[in-house]
Amino acid sequence: MIAKLAVTIIGLIALALGVTVLLDYAKFERAFTEVAESRFVFVVKELRSTIETGLGLGLSLASLKNMEPVIEREARNDEHIVSIALFDRERILIQAGKARAARAPGELETLWQRALTTPAADHWRGATPTAWQIGVSLTDNAGQRAGGLVLEYDRALYERDLAQMLADLARGAAMCGLGVAPLVLLALFGLFHRTRHSLTRIRRALAELRSDSSATAFQPRADAPLEQHYAAAERKTQEALALLVADSAAANRAIAATRISA
After folding, report:
1. Residue 132: pLDDT above 70?
2. CA angle, corner 69, sides to 63 and 70, nearest 5?
3. In what order do the strands lie in the sheet with 145-154?
4. Angle, nearest 10°, between helix axes 67-76 and 2-56?
5. What is the spatial distance between Cα 144 and Cα 146, in angstroms, rounded to a whole number?
6. What is the per-residue pLDDT for 149?
């Protein structure tokens, strides 16, 4: 019985810990996604501000060669960044970071369309099979869209960080569960050991009472409520039996007296 109850309680604790891990992971994933995106949004908007300062002076995107070391530096500052690309309608002007592969014309067209349809003060989100994208459009001094800037950050590293956090949460829950399980077993053993001892004494007292109605009254222990309840019930039973015996004796005497008088 103790083993079954212990398994049930430990199973419920494990379930509660599992649900807690999943809820904490969901909260962490949401917060981590927001923090990661906000960091990269800040980077591209800072770069946009610097680039548009040059465009405001009448320069073209193609002539902003001094932006390449600035973009390179930003790309090196975070291992999650795969690439930062500056582009116009025709081509990629600057591409910095770990990925420098030439982009297909269709991909460049997609980036240009995103830049055209994104409000000047806003940013857009996208995705490739290996990276998430954050992009902004660039506006020249005439208020026309001159091009755009797109930052890609590594999905594998992002998912690795999430997986690491999930593993840490699961490890913490497992350690907590392993720490609680022995305490549950000890508590149940202590509780049921006393109860089983009391039941053994009560069974012995009942056996003696059945074999000898004049057996010594059961003596409960002061720290055993179950034994005290049994002792009280035994006293009441004995008192009821004594009353029945007395009533039976009185009835027998009355019958005998009636017969003699008759």
Report:
1. yes
2. 90
3. 92-97, 81-87, 145-154, 131-139, 124-127
4. 170
5. 6
6. 92
Please, which residues bridge with residue 86 across strands?
94, 149
**Rounded CA gap, 86 and 65, in Å?**
11
Q: Let me know the angle formed at the C-alpha of 101 by 42 and 51, rounded to the nearest 5 degrees.
A: 35
CA distance 33 to 27: 10
Query: Could you count the other beta carbons within 10 Å of the beta carbon of residue 60?
Result: 13
Question: One-letter amino acid identity for 86?
Answer: L
Q: Give me the residues paired with residue 124 across strands.
A: 135
- How remote is the C-alpha of 155 from its chain's centroid? 23
Phi then psi for residue 144, to 5 deg, are: -100, 155
pTM of the model: 0.58
Phi first, then psi: give them for residue 196, nearest 5 degrees. -65, -40
CA proximity to 112, closest of 92, 88, 93, 134: 88
Phi/psi at 134 (nearest 5 deg)?
A: -125, 125
- Counting Cα atoms < 13 Å in the Cβ hemisphere of 224 gives 21
